Amino acid sequence: MHISDGILEPKWIFFWYAISIFFIGLGLRIINKRVKEEPVYLPRLSLMGAVVFVISVWHIPVPVTGSSSHPVGTPMSSIIIGPSATVVISAIALFFQAFVAHGGLTTIGANTFSMGIAGNFGGYFVYRLLKNVSPLWFSAGLAGLAGSIITYLTTALQLALSLNPGNVLYYWKLYSLGFIPTQLPLAFAEFAFTAYVIKYISETGCMENISPGYPGDRFSRNALLLMFSIAAIIAIGAYIGYLGGVNMAGTDSTVESMAAPSASRGGIRLISYIGEPLGFALIGITGGLITGYFWSELRRRS
Amino acid sequence: MLEWLSADPLNGIIITITFFISVIIGRYLRIKRAGENKSKLIDSRIKILFLFFLIISITLMGHWYIPIGILVICIFISLRLAIFRIFGSKLIFPVLLAFFILVIQTLANGTNKIDYGIISVSQEGFESGFLIFARVVAAASLAILFLSTASENEIIETMRWYRVPITMLDISSLMSRYIRAFSMEAKKMKMAQISRGGLSGGSGYLKKMHDIASITGALIIRALVRAELVYRAMLSRGWKHGQLSLEGAQALNLMDLLIGFILLTGIIILIGIDRVMLA
Questions:
Q1: In angstroms, rounded to a whole number, what is the distance separating the alpha carbons of residues A21 and A88?
Q2: Which of A16, A209, A34 has its CA nearest to residue A111?
Q3: In sequence order, what are the residues at sequence separation of 6 or more whose Cβ sits closer than 8 angstroms to the Cβ of residue A208?
Q4: What is the rounded distance in angstroms from the CA atom of residue A94 to the CA atom of residue A274?
Q5: Which residues between 193 and 252 in chain A have a beta carbon less than 8 angstroms from any beta carbon of chain B?
């Protein structure tokens, strides 16, 4: 993820610096307030900074993008010390990493934005969203996975904006795909790693801000396993198809011409109105909620 | 043979005095030179500013000659300072990364492609790839050289002079200590776990991940407890948060400012050469 010196254009160097400085300023305000109330918060922060440094310094070079793949560690840190403080410690970790030729001095702003702001807040948001409705290990693990993927999507966007301003969307997709072979396994590793670490810390009971969460049962485990398996099959199939140059437009036209020639060409009105991704998400959520709500009832009757 | 002694003693006296005084001066210069750290000739505050602007100027360059020239100079300096091994080992990753860019640009970029059987390359892609290669490697070599000639304390001191917020400096100084302690402790715990049958080659992915995560979790808990104890000890010995204020910081002297001015002028000249003479 760390973009090296010499890749970003100067205007983007300063742009990402400006955004990151704003977030660092906010983070510092929160840290200062907290340190006044609880002085030992400072060594705790520094220690998490060291953890983020060690986790994210291990990297694999990625062809195409001029960057590298590695676990990020910021979602785990945001669960332990909070997302605002994580922005500050990731900026410091990136500063130290610039001197071991990992990342760069002029790209600290861009790298802080992707790893310390987008990945960190994205992961934390997922954690907070799932914390009370899923087991702790799952919400923490998914925070790690989401944080890792968001970080890489942001890095791909930063590269596309700077290197290919004429065709940002196309190159964003290209750079994102360039990251997949190395980053996807790392993102799953980060899922397992974050889940185990947070679960371990929660079991010791020495961090009051990490609650055990919703206790998972066999039903939840099976549903998650099924979800991961199906999603992985679809993702692998789509990637193989993309590499093979298959037209990714879907099977809509085949269905329209062969299965339902008399159906309206506009498709389902709601989906054409709000767009396919949002429409399918809405269908998934509605279907899932209804099935989940009546599952036990249906099982008992059958 | 001893004619000069009786007939012309002046020459003898002159040569004796000049010789022995020169011996003393020569010895003094040798000692002074040996004690002088060549890498500390430029103030680190000037060095970091110069480094930042030089890296930005490298990004602005349209030809590979100057970045490659900078790389050669960095290699020469590292040889002179006898740090080439460290410098070289740290440079491996950026070179590898830049090489990937060069290969991909050569194979994928450009419109006029020359077919070599299974692969087709483009001159245009190679040129743009080599420019990025030169920029990345030159910038990385500068950063590595800077770190090799500046201590952690010096870097933190420099940050302090540049008015970096005190809290960030406190976290940085604590972090730089914890990174080393954390890495060492992690190695120890990993060895302990291997000796007890953990992390074995035969165990599956999830088991390995569980073992690594349990080391990290235990390490975080253990380190947190220790860090808090150390911090309380530091407080009890008079250390205060925000102690690293700007009071007592050494001001830049005229010589440092002059060197800074010359170096920054040099950067502007380099950009000028790249834009005008090499165009």
A1: 9
A2: A16
A3: none
A4: 40
A5: 193, 195-201, 204, 206
Structure tokens, B16: 């004796």
For B36-169, strand residue ranges (E) read: 113-116, 119-122
Interface pTM, i.e. ipTM = 0.71
b (16+ CB within 10 A) / e for B195-212: eeebbeeeeeeeebbbbb
- Taking CB atoms and an 8 Å cutoff, what residues of chain B touch A13? 56, 59
**Are the C-beta atoms of residues B119 and B92 closer than 8 Å to each other?**
no
Residues on chain B touching A189 (C-beta within 8 angstroms)? 209
Instruction: Tell me: pLDDT of B277 over 80.
Output: no
Structural domain A10-216, CATH architecture: Orthogonal Bundle (1.10)
User: What six digits make up the tokens of B152?
Assistant: 């952690």
Per the structure block, which two tokens stand in for A232?
């992985």
Residue B70 and residue B186 in contact, taking contact as beta carbons nearer than 8 Å = no
Any idea where the domains of chain A sit in the sequence?
10-216, 224-301
Interface check for A108 against chain B (CB to CB < 8 A): the answer is no
Burial A76-85 (b: 16+ CB within 10 A, else e): bbbbbbbbbb
Q: Do B175 and A93 touch (CB under 8 A)?
A: yes
Consecutive H or E run containing A68: strand A67-69
Question: Residue A134: is it exposed, middle or buried by C-beta count within 10 angstroms (0-12/13-18/19+)?
Answer: buried
Tell me if B171 and A45 make a contact (CB, 8 A cut-off): yes
Q: A45: which chain B residues are within 8 Å (Cβ-Cβ)?
A: 171
pLDDT at B39 over 60: no
pTM, two decimal places: 0.75
Among chain B residues, CA nearest to A73: B216
Q: Which token pair is A178?
A: 């360039």
Residue with tokens 């004690």: B35
Task: Extract the tokens encoding A29.
Answer: 């305000």
Give contacts of A197 with chain B, Cβ < 8 Å: 213, 216-217, 220
pLDDT given at position A243: 76
CB atoms within 10 A of CB B126: 18
Count of CB atoms situated within 10 Å of the CB of B247 = 6
Cα-Cα end-to-end distance for chain A: 51
Residue A80: closest C-alpha in chain B: B220
- Confidence at residue A215, expressed as pLDDT on a 0 to 100 scale: 62
Strand residue runs (E) in chain A = 60-62, 67-69
